[in-house]
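Lab channel / #folding
Pinned by the channel admin:
"Please post every new chain as: sequence first, then the C-alpha cells as a reply. Keep commentary short and put observations after the output so the thread stays searchable."

First post following the new format, from NK:
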Amino acid sequence: MRVELYDGDRAGLRWSFELAEDSAVELDGYLDEGRVLVAVQDGRIVGHLQLVGLEIKNMAVVPERRGTGVGARLIEAAVSLVRAEHGGTMLVATGAADVGNLRFYQRQGFRFRSVERDVFTPANGYPAGIMVDGIELRDRVWLDREIRPDP
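Reply from TO:
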C-alpha cells in the first residue's frame, strides 16, 4: 500500500468522503478544500484523508480495510506534510458518540480539546436520530496534536 497526494477530480472521490460525512450539505461546502491524501492498494483507493490547513476535515477507510493500519498510515503521511512545511497544531473533529473514532485518534497522539454541543442536527443537514455504537449522535468533539517542524 502507498499513500500519495490526490490530484484528480474530487467528485470522483465523493463516495469515500460520504463514508465519513452524513450531511450532503456539509460535504458540498468543503469537498474541494485543502489537499487530499489517498491510500492506494492494488490500484484501488482504500482510504483518504483531507487536510485543510492544519485540520483533518474528512477521513475514511473502506470497510473491509478498517483496522489494518490504513488510517494510521494516512495520519502518518499528514503529520509528515505538516512537519515538513511548518509544524503546528493539527486538529480533528469527530462525533462524541463515535467511540471507535475517539479511540483511533487518541492512539494517533491526539488529545481532547473541546466539545461542541448539538452539531449533528437536521438544521445542519444531518438526519435525526443517527445512532453510533448505541449512542445518539449529537455533539462534536475536537482533538489536537502538536507537530514540531523539521529542524
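NK: DSSP finds four helices and nine strands in the chain.
TO: also worth noting, Residues 47 and 60 are 5 Å apart (CA to CA).
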